[in-house]
Amino acid sequence: MSNASNRPIGVFDSGIGGLTVVAEIMRQLPREEIVYFGDTARLPYGPKSPETVTQFSIEDTEFLLRNDVKMIVVACNTASSVAVDALSARYDLPVVGVIRPGALAAVSSTLRGKIGVIGTEGTIASRAYSKAIGKLDRDAEVIERSCPLFVPLAEEGWTDREVTLVIAHEYLTPLRDAGVDVVVLGCTHYPILKGTIGKVFGPNVRLIDSAEETASEVAERLGAFSLEREAGGDLEHRFYVTDVPHRFREQAERFLGGRLPRVDLVSIDELG
Amino acid sequence: MSNASNRPIGVFDSGIGGLTVVAEIMRQLPREEIVYFGDTARLPYGPKSPETVTQFSIEDTEFLLRNDVKMIVVACNTASSVAVDALSARYDLPVVGVIRPGALAAVSSTLRGKIGVIGTEGTIASRAYSKAIGKLDRDAEVIERSCPLFVPLAEEGWTDREVTLVIAHEYLTPLRDAGVDVVVLGCTHYPILKGTIGKVFGPNVRLIDSAEETASEVAERLGAFSLEREAGGDLEHRFYVTDVPHRFREQAERFLGGRLPRVDLVSIDELG
User: Fold this and answer.
1) Which terminal Cβ of chain B has fewer Cβ within 10 Å, N or C?
2) Which site among A81, A149, A162, A271 would you substitute to test the B interface, given the most B Cβ atoms closer than 10 Å to its Cβ?
3) What domains can you pick out in chain A, each with its CATH number?
4) pTM
5) Of A122, A166, A243, the CB nearest to B52
């Protein structure tokens, strides 16, 4: 076994949305190696119950642990909302979710103390962002809204369509009218729709991309635990999914900006 | 063990869309008892690979067989597209999918021989309707189109919104302009959007609801195998799902027209 700090970082998501977090980790931490697990056979996690999402998250983590990772990054807002505490309690390694980094960035950048949060139904129903923001700033006002059509619109690739703007207005106008000055994009798919979302809010509302903030938190935690990879040696990132739908390649390219990785298939029978 | 014909009919779907088929079976065959299995923890099947959908379909069928059913109804277009033959070969009881009944209805009602088929990505990629229609009428011209946003729109309950009509136009105008006179609603969710879909096609295009046609086929097959339930005795329909998302009740009411059944939760660990 090599030095513990030379082991890879494990990242999981319900599908491929977590690749936005991977892209940011690669950008901010180019020396680190990544093992990615996307549970594409059972995606999406967004509309499912906390019990089911927690069970899936444990199975996803077990898979990454068998790949000898030094840290778990829960690159899925829904799983982060309901399962990070359970994973942290269960496993003896650092677990980083996407909620706390996004909440921290929101609190530190709001001027008016009015923060909007958008996400899947599971994330919003959990009130995870409200709770995380409340712990950091008791006076902050948080307005949350689930946007169930954003993920299918992003996966359809309809990022610049008029109809996407109409739907964005439907979902987001109440937040804009409430006077939020910061909005957390609380789903890894949403940065793909950033242009359209920005059109609804205008230039004076800051959009928080949790992928960026999460990668920063990963860097900090690696430092705190002295787990930074030593220089030297080739990196071999690995990507595993539980299903390869026929549009996978197209979607993965959209998320990783054209750099399509090699992807291996894992049977869900090997989980659990 | 009671008389074989008094056993229930087993129906499965990736989620609750199959309840449209259940509602039709209850209407056409009020003496029959139903055991329904909805794989809500792993839905949707639409964007997933044939291999994964077949594996899930086998697990769903095994669950129904443990409930002593006399027939399997695959009330999911995606699963019907890729798994009915595998299930028929593997199990020694009648297996009814939704594809053949829809194809049959389309062929018998088209005047111009131009048939439109809409469905999920999995259903359309499989070309199952084209093949089934081609077997019945070699001269029929079939134009297929996947409509990935229709399921989330139906589940969001946006059945009458302007934006839904805009999206429907985007998907369906090429079929309308090609001159189809029959359109198969090749997904159990789509009848919920029938009003909007009808607005795009106008009154001279017939929309085929596969739920109705499938229930008729179930009736025929029960007759052919002498499996009709004898009169008398109370019916106790049973509904099982692998997850209960928080919007489940609302959605189930939309599908069953207000008659919400008792629903029991099954762990996916009990499958497979």
Assistant:
1) N
2) A149
3) 4-97+213-271 (3.40.50.1860), 99-210 (3.40.50.1860)
4) 0.89
5) A243
